[in-house]
Amino acid sequence: MMKSFFLSLLVGLLFSKDYVKPTEIDGKKKWKGEGTTPNLESIVIGRCYEYIRIVNPSIGEKNCTEIWEAFKKAFINKDPCNILPSDYELFINLALHTIPPNKSLFWENNHLLVTSYSDRTRRYMPLCDTLIGSFGDFLNWCGQANDTGFNYDSCPNTEECENNAVESFWKIASITYAKQSSGVIYVMLNGSAIGGAYPVKGFFADYEVPNFQKDRISRIEIWVMDDIGGPDLDSCGRGSVQILEERLKTMGYDITCIDNYKSVLLLKCLDYLNHSDCSIVSSAPSTQRGLVSPHRGGSWSRLIYTIFVAFVFEICFNPLN
């Protein structure tokens, strides 16, 4: 009686709509995530040489081929759901370089804005602008057990297994970056993000904040940036930002929080000059209109406006200031 019960239960599970039987194509498991980025090796080695020769030559000589081999060794010929952060230790050691004080920029839900504002290490050096981060930024990869090649068809996502090649890479990269950061630490959050500007479960909360080195950090400055035209869901002193502020204060850090930090807002407004959220820029030229000769027409107004924007941009974004 009991055996027939368990047999019926097993059959029910196998054929229920909640059970997803793994599919295989030509002997390869079909995952939900995107497959390995085509030409991964060429892209990564190219990025490495560009970084040490052009982007940040101050880090000195690096063997890009050796770093690539260490990177690949972490996940090739292994179960793609059994890749641990420690598997990337050799890669991390080979690619590691110092992060200048006051240059670290952490973020959540602001990837493209952060990369635009950091300007490839000229202003700041977020994780994606380090040599380690450049190996994974906007790329995907995985291997498979008993196979020395890449899986270009599909890779497991975090929903399928947490210990996948990409997730584990960013875990150890985040931990390393946090430990290397010093001086004033900057954090850019998205005040319009659904679910909160500061995800209490995320790379910043789980792997970066716990690995801050208190004796190396003088202050932490948080920028909460709303999307242009987006909702103001979170801001300094309330919501999830308040949770972050209280957490950092409990850890003994001096905290400053700024809503819609002006320099970053100016960058965002370059694509939305006429939007009401960008009145910080668009309102300024209106004070000039009384000085414009009517015989000059719109061309002169546009010239004044362009000069003004260029002047403000230089003042706010000149990395020497």
TrEMBL record:
Q: Does the keyword NAD apply?
A: yes
Q: Name one GO biological process term.
A: positive regulation of B cell proliferation
A GO molecular function annotation here is: transferase activity
- EC numbers listed for it are 3.2.2.6
Q: Where is the signal peptide?
A: 1-16
Q: Which InterPro entries match?
A: ADP-ribosyl_cyclase
Pfam families per UniProt: Rib_hydrolayse (PF02267)
Q: Which domain of life is it from?
A: Eukaryota
What are the alphabetically sorted keywords of the record? Answer: Disulfide bond, Hydrolase, NAD, Signal, Transferase
User: Which is a Gene Ontology cellular component entry for this protein?
Assistant: plasma membrane
Q: Which family does it belong to?
A: Belongs to the ADP-ribosyl cyclase family.
Indicate what this protein is called per its UniProt record.
Answer: ADP-ribosyl cyclase/cyclic ADP-ribose hydrolase
Originating organism? Mauremys mutica
